[in-house]
UniProtKB/TrEMBL annotation:
Enzyme class: transferase
Single GO term (MF): protein serine kinase activity
Function comment: Binds to sigma F and blocks its ability to form an RNA polymerase holoenzyme (E-sigma F). Phosphorylates SpoIIAA on a serine residue. This phosphorylation may enable SpoIIAA to act as an anti-anti-sigma factor that counteracts SpoIIAB and thus releases sigma F from inhibition.
Protein name as annotated: Anti-sigma F factor
Protein keywords: ATP-binding, Kinase, Nucleotide-binding, Serine/threonine-protein kinase, Sporulation, Transferase
Ranges for domain Histidine kinase/HSP90-like ATPase: 35-140
Keyword ATP-binding: yes
SMART domains the record matches: HATPase_c
Gene3D superfamilies, sorted: Histidine kinase-like ATPase, C-terminal domain (3.30.565.10)
Originating species: Domibacillus epiphyticus
Name of the gene: spoIIAB
Reactions it catalyzes: L-threonyl-[protein] + ATP = O-phospho-L-threonyl-[protein] + ADP + H(+); L-seryl-[protein] + ATP = O-phospho-L-seryl-[protein] + ADP + H(+)
Length: 146
């Protein structure tokens, strides 16, 4: 059976931690390893931070939307904003590329998200914002003794 969670919040930096914990709590029913849970939380953090800082230019009036679904041991997370979008997704995926060099940012985290998830998809439009979707298998990864 599929289980779905929807969450929306203002584009405030302090809400990034809330998003991490909410998605991790939702995923906990799959009994993930600590490493898998940390990787999931990091991917959520990177996507939400991008929406806040790059999508909305840290304007708290913006809204970040998260949908997470669990089905058959896998979590599917979608982080969406209605901000200014990404002009060049390939460039944004480069490890040290940032649209905010004055903030001493070390990139937009897509490489990290890609490394920590099983699937990463990015869709963006300068007129409607950005959608970051990733999937991660969390169940049945551990060796079980019988």
């Amino acid at each position: 059976m599929q289980n779905v969670m929807n969450l929306s919040f203002n584009a405030l930096g302090e809400n990034e931690a809330f998003a991490r914990v909410a998605v991790a709590s939702f995923a906990a029913k799959l009994n993930p390893t600590m490493d898998d849970l940390a990787e999931l939380k990091t991917a959520v953090s990177e996507a939400v931070t991008n929406a806040i800082i790059h999508g909305y230019d840290s304007n708290p009036a913006g809204i970040v939307y998260i949908t997470a679904s669990i089905d058959d041991g896998e979590i599917d997370v979608v982080v969406r904003d209605e901000g200014k979008g990404i002009h060049n997704i390939d460039q944004a995926k480069e490890p040290l590329f940032t649209t905010k060099p004055e903030m001493e940012r070390a990139g937009m985290g897509f490489t990290i998200m890609e490394h920590f998830t099983d699937l990463l998809e990015i869709e963006s439009s300068t007129s409607s914002g950005t959608v970051v979707r990733f999937k991660k298998r969390l169940a049945d990864k551990r060796v079980r003794c019988v």
